[in-house]
Amino acid sequence: MDFELSDQQRKLVGLAREVSRPFAARSLGYDRDAAFPVQNFQELREAGLLRLTVPKRFGGYGFWQDQNYVAYYLVLAEIARQCSSTAQLLQVHSHGVGIVASLGNEAQLNRYMPEVAEHGRLFASCGSEASQRKHGAEGFDATIRRSGDHYLLSGFKGFASLASDADYYLIWTLVEGTAKMEEGMVFAVVPKGREGVRLENNWDTFGMRPTVSWNIHLDNCRVAPEEIVGEPGDWVQRDPRTFTLGFAANHIGSAWGIYDYVADYFSRREDLRATATAMVELGDAESRLQAAEALLMRAAWLWEKGDYDAAELASMRTLHMAKHAGINLATKAFDLCGARSTFNDQRLGMFYRDMRTFTLHFREDRLLQMLSQALTGGEFHSKQRYGRRLQNKALADAVA
């Protein structure tokens, strides 16, 4: 098992580290205003980091495809170390672009990939329909239906990160007459400003505030046939990839950011460095983060090997460990640094709020339940979270 990066990969991770250094100084301002980090993304655009998942033949890095995964997650972790929200926004854009790159036809790739690679256009991947106004489990009812020579798209999307500044919305939607992702979900690429799309700025949250994850309301939005990506059910049946390890990479990077804060705080406090228990806690935190990072590398290696079901199980384990390592350190850091670290001009409070908020994205009870079921002989495949693997669209046949 070789985790050694190529020279190109090392340079890219180093580029992400250098480009993201100024993000830390801006993070409190974007957090206070719940504002999209415009300057951060301009610098990511200038550095070419918006084209991570654009195929190489279109001038991208070809990550999240073709056995090309490890460096992608390390880039996300480096950026999260400075600003968790910026890293999550980059991931949302990158997996939106990656979905089109994987499931789109040649005409769609020729249309959309240069938009990203050459012009730095942003994609918002909009799947969630969770709303704080509704009770009970999240549903899924965004629907697209045929109407003459075009389609009409209606429904609701919540937690739509990047909504305020995206150029394109990749809307997850069911074909009329279907009820589940596994059989009827396609993606509609809707450009910003199209009639029938209404954005609602409801984003006043505890943490991850710069993700501007607004609500999107869709009312008979017109969609051309060439703007529909994938056949019904392809996301579950023909595409093994998930977002799990991207979340874990963010948690690990954010936790390293907290570690950096504490270590810097200690470097200016000789009295704290002389406290054995505090130094033990800091050493314990560093060891836990190193362990989570090792799990991340192994899971990414499995994705590169093409062992997709095992890769997703390893990604889920990594996410579980990254959550606990991050939340533990975010909480413990206040004990280590003391009351002065609670002032709002300090980043520790923001670190804690972002970590606590983002780690709720994939419910811990559901994650561990799926892991346990898989380990005790239950049905499992990499897209188990989204639906069943259907016999007539076997993933193994699709990726062979």
Which secondary structure elements does this structure contain, and how are they paired or packed?
Elements: H1 7-20, H2 23-33, H3 38-46, H4 70-80, H5 84-103, H6 106-117, E1 123-126, E2 143-147, E3 150-160, E4 168-175, H7 181-184, E5 185-191, E6 197-200, E7 214-223, E8 228-229, H8 234-237, H9 244-267, H10 270-273, H11 276-305, H12 308-337, H13 348-358, H14 364-375, H15 395-399
Parallel strand pairs: 1-4, 2-4
Antiparallel strand pairs: 2-3, 3-7, 4-5, 5-8, 6-7
Helix pairs in contact: 1-4, 4-5, 4-9, 5-9, 9-11, 9-12, 9-13, 11-12, 12-13, 12-14
What does this structure look like?
The chain is of the alpha+beta class and 400 residues long. The chain folds into 3 domains: 7-121, Butyryl-Coa Dehydrogenase, subunit A, domain 1; 143-236, Butyryl-CoA Dehydrogenase, subunit A, domain 2 (Beta Barrel); 240-399, Up-down Bundle (Butyryl-CoA Dehydrogenase, subunit A, domain 3), CATH 1.20.140. Helices cover 50% and strands 13% of the residues. The chain contains 15 helices and 8 strands. The chain has helices spanning 7-20, 23-33, 38-46, 70-80, 84-103, 106-117, 181-184, 234-237, 244-267, 270-273, 276-305, 308-337, 348-358, 364-375, 395-399, and strands spanning 123-126, 143-147, 150-160, 168-175, 185-191, 197-200, 214-223, 228-229. Strands 1, 2, 3, 4, 5, 6, 7 and 8 form an 8-stranded mixed sheet that branches. A hairpin with a 2-residue loop joins strand 2 and strand 3 (150-160). Helix 9 (244-267) runs antiparallel to helix 13 and helix 11 runs antiparallel to helix 12.
